[in-house]
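Hi R.,

Here's the chain you asked about this morning:
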Amino acid sequence: MKVTVFSGSHKGREGNTLLMVEEFLKGVEEAGAETENIILAEKDIRHCMGKFECWLKTPGKCIIRDDMDDLLPRFMASDIVVFACPVYFENVPSIMKNFIDRLAPVLLPHFEEDETGEYRHAKRYEKYPKFVVISNAGLPGQTNFEVIRLFFRRLTRTFHTELIAEIYRGEGEIFRGKKNIMLKPLIGKYNKLLRSAGKDVVENQALSEKTVKDLEKPIVPPSLYIKFGNEEWDRLVNESQEEDK
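And the predicted structure, written out as tokens:
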């Protein structure tokens, strides 16, 4: 089994979502799957021009020559694709949306009615990878993921596949405190859950209700997270202002 992560943070390898991905992939590998983590910030991916050449002039292939020439086959060769990204102003970052827009060639231009009575583009291929979503937000709470949750569920329908797991983590900046003596065991407990989730995705193609519930529990009380978060922002603002003097 091949599990490919497309990591869509503008911070590249410095983002908090990547810390989640690394633990998740440990579980995936423990279950025996082959893994690859592609950092979209390191790739040359131009914007879709919306001219439909991939459906008309060069069916199934974009006319833009950039790193999508390599990434599109990797996407289709995967059994499971993980979309990993932070929340930016209630939605996916532009780098992730740009990548998703460029997946258009794997579909046909023709319209069809799905089993719910809605319409979508038809399949170009018989089989598409199953989807997993991993997302991280700086603010606490699951409501931060309402837009992303709906977006990826709709995207799954568009690509004729299944969304087999969703992992949404508020309090994202807490991962930066992994060396803190008080936070270290709490983060370690959550990382263990991520590894378990990775194994479940490979072995069961799903997460149990208990695993989902445990993954969504606050790591620290939200009020405490907000208090220390605001104190840290005050420190950073003051530090920045001092540098400008």
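The longest strand covers residues 80-86.

Let me know if you need anything else.
M.
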